[in-house]
Each structure stands twice: as C-alpha cells, then as structure tokens.
Write a structure and sequence with these properties.
By secondary structure, the chain is an alpha/beta fold. 42% of the residues lie in helices and 15% in strands. It is built from nine helices and eight strands. An eight-stranded parallel beta barrel has the order 1-2-3-4-5-6-7-8, surrounded by six helices. Helix 3 packs parallel to helix 4 and helix 8 packs across helix 9. It is globular and about 45 Å long. The model has no long low-confidence stretch (mean pLDDT 97).
Length: 282
C-alpha cells in the first residue's frame, strides 16, 4: 500500500510565526497534529538529543511520527543517532553529513561507511541535498549518485537553486540535472527558493514563477516515486525555517506567517498526490 505522509519540522515551529513566541512542546505537537500533519522532523543541527527526548512523549501522545535529521561530524558518531532513530521508530535518518572531503574519491568511502552502518543497525538513511555538507554541490552529488547506485536522496531542491544560482527560466540542461536528483529521491522537503534567497514568501506576486517551478518539481518527484514504489510511505516535510532562513523587515519581523504557509504547502502536496492517484486502498 502506498500512502502520502506529510510532516513539518520542530525547527520550523520554534517559533512558528511572526510573533517570535516559542511554544512549549506539548502545544507545538497539539497544533501540528490538529492541522493534519502525520509527523515532525527533529533536527539535531538546531536542537540536541536531550530536546529529542523531551519532545518525544508529546509526539507520541498526539500520534506524530518522528523523523531524525542528523548532522554527523565524524563517521563513527552516526551510530548513536541511528540507534536513537531505531528506538524512536523513525522511518529513516536524513543525513546532512558534516564530514566533507574535497575530492570525490574521498567522499565515496564516507557515504559507503554510513550506508553500511545503517544496514547493520537496520535503519534506512537518505542524504539530503543541502549546503555546507557532503552533498553541498549539485555536480558532485550527481557524481556520487553515479558511483554509489544504492545512495538515496532526500530532495530539498531549495539549496541547489541558491547554490547554482539558476537563471529563470531554467535551461533544459539544468532541468535535466534536477530530474536526475529526483529520480534517486525517496523523500522530499518543501520550501520555495530563488537564485538569491533560500526561502521565499509564497503569496508575493514577484515570487510566483519560483512557486510554480517548485510545484512542478514536487509533482515530478512524487510521480517518479510512485512509478518506482509499489508500496510504502512517501514522506514530504514542510520545512519553513525561522530567521535567518525567513526574510525579515527592518525591525526584524518576519514578512509572512510560516505556519500558515506550511499548511498551504501541505495542501498543494496533497492535491498533487491525489491528482496522481492518491493513497492506495487499504
């Protein structure tokens, strides 16, 4: 059975809007569950293991599945995170690897070691397309995918739009590079970027060309996932980060309501998924 599971991020909920107020974890989890999200990503780059354990009972009380986002600074440190993820019941660990060799030949053993460790512990791993990590560069990541056929991606394409400073409209060549990433992606993350900004307001008129671009990529990615998977959960994380990801005005106030925008993206993804055929019947 195939089904869509839409998550948000604990990082994005601290704070969740322009008020700047950081709600206690029980309220956060109640809000997220009431809005119809299926789970919440726990970002170990923005929080620590102690926070993960503090928020866990509130997620469990509200029927939310945890997803662990790891920032391992050494190869061996990944093991503790994998063990924690297994204990938490996370569907996989999203790796934003902080071991960053310069040469491709030195990167391959790092990825291979983390994948072997994940197989031994019994927790799947995906490698997020993200700046300031081992998948920082689109071209290098594509070479890693060629060298490591079993390497799976968590696609946050906002990072590559900024990193490559793609001109709009994208060339067929550049669109083809992104398609190669999507064809190896087992989950997706949602924010809209431009070639200069990592996170755009969704309803500003000047941003609509980028909104349409990302919605097209999400449709392409979800369709490709469905073609490759006869069963399983397709996980999409709405990840709209607080400042300085979120743009602010001269007084430091956010220029849009990220909590409302996360729910807008959730609605878009559910609509796309249903257009593609929806969840399989139970």
């Amino acid at each position: 059975m195939r089904r869509l599971q839409v998550y948000t991020s604990l990082w994005a909920m601290q704070p969740h809007d322009q008020s700047g107020v950081k709600l206690p974890y029980d309220q956060v989890c109640e809000m997220v569950a009431a809005a119809g999200f299926d789970g919440m990503a726990i970002d170990l780059g923005a929080a620590d293991v102690a926070v993960a354990h503090q928020v866990r009972p509130h997620m469990e009380a509200n029927g939310l599945t945890p997803l662990i986002v790891a920032f391992p600074k050494t190869i061996d440190s990944m093991e503790d995170t994998l063990l924690m993820a297994r204990d938490f019941g996370a569907p996989f660990v999203d790796i934003i690897g902080q071991v960053m060799p310069i040469a491709l030949d030195d990167m391959v053993p790092v990825i291979a070691a983390w994948m072997a460790m994940a197989d031994r512990i019994g927790v799947p791993v995906q490698f997020e397309t993200h700046r300031n990590c081992i998948t920082n560069d689109l071209y290098t990541t594509l070479q890693l995918l060629d060298r490591i056929p079993d390497m799976r991606i968590c696609a946050d394409l906002s990072h590559y739009v900024v990193d490559r400073e793609f001109w709009f409209p994208l060339s067929d060549h550049d669109k083809g590079l992104i398609s190669r990433v999507l064809q190896r992606s087992d989950s997706f993350q949602g924010r809209v970027a431009s070639r200069q900004q990592i996170q755009l307001q969704l309803d500003f008129p000047q941003h609509q060309k980028w909104v349409d671009l990302f919605k097209g990529w999400w449709r392409e990615g979800l369709a490709d996932w469905r073609a490759r998977n006869a069963s399983g959960d397709c996980i999409f994380v709405c990840e709209l980060g607080p400042p300085e990801y979120a743009m602010t005005d001269a007084k430091g106030r956010e220029m849009s309501n990220r909590w409302a925008e996360a729910q807008v993206i959730k609605g878009w993804i559910e609509e796309i998924w249903n257009d593609l055929g929806g969840d399989d019947p139970a």
